[in-house]
């Protein structure tokens, strides 16, 4: 067992109320002595205030530098728990145990850790790979279709930046979603190949940001307005549609691909009402994007399926137009 | 100029009220366009709440990933500003410009960044070297003798873990303190040699912790009681005396060295009244030391001058006795 190799002085298990109820019972018996901390579920808990709560619990035990943190949950738990572990006493070992499809195919690898700040997504954080990642499909049975759907957006993105072959395979997947171990593994491998080539995201890894310039701006705005609940996957699906349109406008992605990608996405994901987002709010969120350089908004677009162009500057106005393209689309 | 090489999109200059008043006028004219943030001075500001204030200011500008943070001040500013920069949008470039003798010989290199948390020193943080460090003796003229004294404790430690030759040179230094560029440079080089061999402090770098097991526990306690103001150097000086005694008790450091080291230190630094620290408070602080493994308190001691033994387990009781040794010493 991995934990036996690490020989930690103490084990600290971080979960949210959801994973405590549904996932913890599946693994509890296999874990040696450990202390648990359960926090409320949801992206709105991914704050510095929750980190303070976690660091207090770690200090009270106290954990020492040879203790182990296990993060069992979705992206919020893995990102925030990894961040907390990485800066507690300047860095403890941690294992991520992602329990949602989204966190399995996305947050589990790549070493992006952190929290939201002042409504900006993942604004405070760092790069560090977990000491281990444990992925088990047993947790997927605990998820609703909405949660599985959220993970699918990143799987679709992986297919689009990988190859026509991957995209053709992806198009077969439909609701209700029951991803196979093989599909999950293939999707993770796309991400893994990019991360391995460029761990700190100075170049080609930015391809993984396809859909995320618009996606994050939409998500930030909807966190802010607080009247609409949206999953990360739903925001990324909007981003993928908008940025596929931008790819057509800016890089000449051909019309057939534009149509087939957007048709698939708009039918796969529920349509989200974006009329509450004002142009100014949207521009403000775009301006805070971590990818920006100076005043330039930067996106990762596709010239063709499997052919990504990174560091592409786009105007805020054109981004707004891409959102209007989404608003005008309708499912069939 | 270094900044011209970096070509930052924006420059963010962090200072405290002290450096704003005394140091900023010395460099203002040589700096290109920049935004300043001034925070209150002192160790009690080295908190997560101040980090939140810094991150808000960074977000408001906004800084992007190609911006540069310059930390101009003592250890608090360099440690906290470096930490804030390192996790803002997952890491901005930063330059440390240490203005105190203490931060020049200690905090400026080694990459230990962070803040205090719940009265525990440097409890939250990480390892990252600044992109550049600018050390200028022009700032030393702005310091009081008390502040220069604080820096001397680390210089004395460097001499003790380096060699008999360094120690003989150090002993010549006396109050009033006017350190030469050469003395500062030699002291930094001792630290630099250790850091270079072991950047993440897994082994030999721990020699630099000599004096800091007891020193930090005393400092934590005095932060907590809040009625006594003590500089880091004064706490380290107490730690050096206590741990030199421990070195004699545990490793047979010879009596002549014990006497000469402690006599030098007790005459160099003002005697601090430690009667307010209860045994239990002291034990609690020792338990939180980042160097500990499980329940064991770990210290770095010296078998001889220039011959350090790391990872040496000491009992809490013996640590308490070492503090009593300090209490019984008197200056001549």
Summarize the structure in words:
The structure is a homodimer of 332-residue chains. In chain A, 48% of the residues lie in helices and 17% in strands. Chain A has 332 residues and is an alpha/beta fold. The first copy, chain A, folds into two domains: 2-141, Rossmann fold (3-Layer(aba) Sandwich); 145-328, Dehydroquinate synthase-like, alpha domain. In chain A, the strands form three sheets. Chain A has a five-stranded parallel β-sheet. In chain A, strands 5-6 form a two-stranded antiparallel sheet. In chain A, helix 6 (101-107) packs parallel to helix 9 (181-197) and helix 7 (145-162) packs across helix 9. The longest helix of chain A is centred in the last third of the chain and has 20 residues, at 232-251. The N and C termini of chain A lie far apart (49 Å). The model of chain A has no long low-confidence stretch (mean pLDDT 93). The A-B interface holds A 9, 48, 51-52, 55-56, 59, 62, 64-66, 83, 86-91, 112, 114, 117-118, 120, 122-127, 287-288, 290-294 and B 9, 48, 52, 55-56, 59, 62, 64-66, 83, 86-91, 112, 114, 117-118, 120, 122-127, 287-288, 290-294.
Overview features:
2 domains, alpha/beta, globular, 14 helices, 332 residues, 17% strand, homodimer, Dehydroquinate synthase-like, alpha domain
């Amino acid at each position: 067992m991995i934990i036996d190799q690490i020989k930690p002085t103490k084990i600290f298990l971080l979960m949210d109320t959801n994973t405590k109820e549904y996932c913890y019972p599946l693994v509890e018996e296999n874990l040696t002595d450990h202390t648990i901390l359960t926090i409320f579920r949801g992206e709105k808990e991914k704050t510095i205030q929750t980190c303070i709560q976690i660091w207090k619990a770690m200090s009270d035990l106290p954990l020492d530098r040879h203790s182990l943190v296990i993060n069992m949950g979705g992206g919020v738990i893995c990102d925030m728990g990894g961040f907390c572990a990485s800066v507690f006493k300047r860095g403890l070992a941690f294992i991520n145990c992602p329990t949602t499809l989204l966190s399995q195919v996305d947050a589990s690898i790549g070493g992006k850790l952190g929290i939201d700040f002042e409504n900006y997504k993942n604004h405070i954080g760092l790069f560090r790979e977990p000491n281990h990642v444990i992925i088990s499909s047993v947790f997927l049975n605990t998820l609703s279709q909405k949660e599985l759907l959220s993970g699918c957006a990143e799987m679709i993105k992986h297919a689009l930046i990988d190859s026509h072959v991957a995209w053709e395979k992806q198009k077969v997947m439909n609701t209700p979603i029951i991803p196979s171990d093989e599909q999950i593994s293939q999707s993770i491998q796309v991400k893994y190949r990019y991360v391995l080539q460029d761990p700190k995201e100075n170049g080609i890894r930015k391809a993984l940001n396809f859909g995320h310039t618009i996606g994050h701006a939409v998500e930030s705005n909807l966190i802010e307005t607080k009247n609409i609940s949206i999953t990360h996957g739903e925001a990324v699906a909007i981003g993928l549609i908008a940025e596929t349109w931008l790819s057509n406008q800016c890089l000449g992605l051909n019309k057939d691909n534009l149509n087939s990608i957007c048709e698939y996405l708009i039918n796969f994901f529920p349509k989200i009402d974006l009329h509450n987002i004002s142009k100014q709010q949207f521009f403000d969120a775009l301006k805070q994007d971590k990818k920006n350089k100076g005043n330039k908004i930067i996106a990762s677009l596709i010239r063709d399926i499997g052919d990504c162009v990174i560091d592409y500057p786009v105007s805020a106005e054109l981004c707004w137009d891409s959102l209007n393209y989404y608003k005008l689309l309708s499912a069939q």
